[in-house]
Amino acid sequence: MNQSRVIIQEQAFDAGQVVEQMYRDNPRVGAVASFLGICRELNEGSTISSMQLEHYPGMTEKSIAHIILQARQKWRIYDCVVIHRVGVLEPTEPIVLVAVSSRHRQQALEACTFIMDFLKTRAPFWKQEVTNQGERWVASRTSDELAADRWK
């Protein structure tokens, strides 16, 4: 059951259903770790009315598949699903789901964190926020870069 799925889509998704599918038919699974990123209404002191996410089709999926492969080389994981939305999102809407299943929790937790750190720093997505002060592109954060650096 070693599967990896990378899904880039505009539509909303059901995170609970995705997580349940990861263990329902695999009695070897002892842990599923997941991260669900949500569009928030406040960022850097501004109220966000919406966020536009763009990506480079083909390149985005390849780069995420590559980081999943790296995670598989570091940890013994069974399944991995990354769903990332693009298009216009409003506060409280899910943006990204990373879910990893393994035999033990530590493997799943570390692989999930590793993949999410990559998504925040290396995946080819561009975010533009529409705020009460106008539109602005979201820059990478030093804290995200430092988190990703620990895996080097």
Structure description:
This protein is of the alpha+beta class and 152 residues long. The protein has a single domain, classed as Aldehyde Oxidoreductase, domain 3 (Alpha-Beta Complex), CATH 3.90.1170.40. Helix content is 33%, strand content 39%. The chain contains four helices and nine strands. Strands 3, 4, 6, 8 and 9 form a five-stranded antiparallel sheet that branches. β3 (42-43) and β4 (46-55) form a beta hairpin. α2 runs antiparallel to α3 (105-121) and α3 packs across α4. The two termini are 28 Å apart. The model has no long low-confidence stretch (mean pLDDT 91).
Overall radius of gyration: 16 Å
The largest pleated sheet is described as:
5 strands, antiparallel
**CATH topology heading:** Aldehyde Oxidoreductase, domain 3
Q: What is the typical, i.e. mean, pLDDT?
A: 91
CATH class, named Alpha Beta
Number of discrete domains: 1
Unreliable runs, pLDDT <50, ≥5 residues? none
According to CATH, the homologous superfamily is: Molybdopterin biosynthesis MoaE subunit
**Assembly of the depicted chains:** single chain
Strand content: 35-45%
Percentage of residues in helical conformation:
25-40%
The count of helical stretches stands at 4
Find the count of extended strands (DSSP E, 2+ residues).
9
Write the element-wise H/E pattern from the N-terminal end onward.
Answer: EHEEEHEEEHEEH
Overall morphology: globular
CATH architecture label: Alpha-Beta Complex
Judged by helices, strands and strand pairing, the structural class is alpha+beta
Rounded to the nearest angstrom, the distance between the terminal CA atoms is: 28 Å
